[in-house]
Amino acid sequence: MKHQPTLLISNACSELGQALVSDAAEHFRVALADADGQLGNQLCANLHGNGREALFLDCLPGSSRDRQRGVERVLRRWQQLDTVINLPAPLTLGPFEATQTSHWQRVMDEQLMDTVNLCQSAISAMHRQEEGGRILNVVPEYGILAGPLAGAQSAASAAIVALGESLHSELHSSGIRVTTLVIPLYQEQASSLCATDPLSDARFQRKIARSPVTREELSQQILDALNSGNALHIASGYTRAKWRRKRWFRKRWERGLRELGARYRR
């Protein structure tokens, strides 16, 4: 009997992560990496009750050791690690001068360095496998569409995009495929938004509420993106349309952002 392939999902207890875990369990044996042990173990119990194989990995934000141990646990349990999906941490947004060192440190630890650390641990394991592996780094659209009040978020997300492009070319001949998936804002992430001040929180809560995208749609788009052979994949037509406007009508795009920034600064 052939076993299902294995999948490790970071930030698996996020709103998006919960939807992805449910969908992915139909095709993979799933390892859930997150700091929320209570919810993570409950998700695993639900999967076990439905006859699915699942494993919870307790991983604190910014801990490279936890990510290494998580990969090792997956290998001990299932003897292989086929796919890794790095989901984004909660958005951090607000005026540049209100974004304190602690905000920057959290964004870099929970987003950039957690992605770096899990990629390093996973790639080391995949190099020892005959069939290589698959890594999908998921970032919010600020990684390619930076805007006002999103300095820290844009910097971290853009760094992950650049990391993915580098790894895509470096590892392709080794049988390890790396893609960065850009996703739009989605409705359910409002509950985990990290804003530097109440006004920014209210502004982005409204912006997120207007998003036409839900976590269920994104979950399917993430699974579909596992078949992409590109270094960069933009999941939503909503985000692709904005990306095209930025590339083709650069002056108009920048003028619109300046006007938006001026409104935010009033």
From TrEMBL:
Q: Does the keyword Iron apply?
A: no
Could you tell me which Gene3D superfamilies the record lists for this protein?
NAD(P)-binding Rossmann-like Domain
The reply on keyword Protein transport is no
Q: Which InterPro entries match?
A: NAD(P)-bd_dom_sf (IPR036291), SDR_fam (IPR002347), SDR_oxidoreductase (IPR051911)
Keyword line? Oxidoreductase
Q: Which residues cross the membrane?
A: none
Q: Which PANTHER family match?
A: SHORT CHAIN DEHYDROGENASE, SHORT-CHAIN DEHYDROGENASE_REDUCTASE FAMILY PROTEIN
* Entry's family note: Belongs to the short-chain dehydrogenases/reductases (SDR) family.
Protein name listed in UniProt: Short chain dehydrogenase/reductase family oxidoreductase
Organism of this sequence:
Alcanivorax jadensis T9
